[in-house]
Amino acid sequence: LEAPKKVKDPKAAAKALLKLFMGEKKRFNVVIASSEVSPYSKSGGLADVAAKLSIALSQLGHRVMTVSPSYRDYDGPVATGVTKDFELYGGNHPV
After folding, report:
1. CA 17, CA 86: separation in Å to the nearest integer?
2. pLDDT digits (tens, 9 = 90+) for 57-87
3. How far apart are CA 81 and CA 90, in angstroms?
4. CA angle at residue 67 from 61 to 71, to 5 degrees?
5. In this structure, what DSSP letter does residue 53 have?
6. What pLDDT was estimated at residue 34?
7. pLDDT for residue 74
8. Which helix (H) or strand (E) holds 21?
9. CB-side exposure of 18: number of CA atoms within 13 Å?
10. What's the gap between Cα 36 and its chain centre?
11. What Rg do the C-alpha atoms of the chain give, in angstroms?
């Protein structure tokens, strides 16, 4: 195994990997849940990954929704009133 090389364009690299593993025909509904998403909340690299992965997946034709806690009020977010219940770890969790 070779050590991974530094990637100059992470967005292009993500697209290439997704294309390689998922092919052209498969399209998915994807929900990315993250404790931080750039530029709204950021303390490290996770925020960048959540934001860029969402963009890369949608550019490949997947339906993508990114959810993150609202840590403070800021211009732009709009409550939709839409909720969905998920069954996780033996319990029902509304999101």
Report:
1. 29
2. 888 888 898 888 877 766 776 777 888 888 8
3. 25
4. 150
5. H
6. 92
7. 66
8. helix 10-22
9. 22
10. 10
11. 16
Q: What are phi and psi of 12, to 5 degrees?
A: -65, -40
What's the whole-number mean pLDDT along residues 25-39?
85
CA distance 15 to 55: 10
pLDDT of residue 93: 78
**pLDDT of 4 over the 60 cut:** no
Strand partners, 28: none
What tokens does 6 get? 């530094």
At 56, phi and psi to the nearest 5? -65, -40
51: enclosing H helix or E strand: helix 45-59
Containing 86, the helix (H) or strand (E) segment is strand 85-88
What is the structure's pLDDT at 6? 64
The helix (H) or strand (E) run that includes residue 27 is none
Tokens of 27: 């399209």
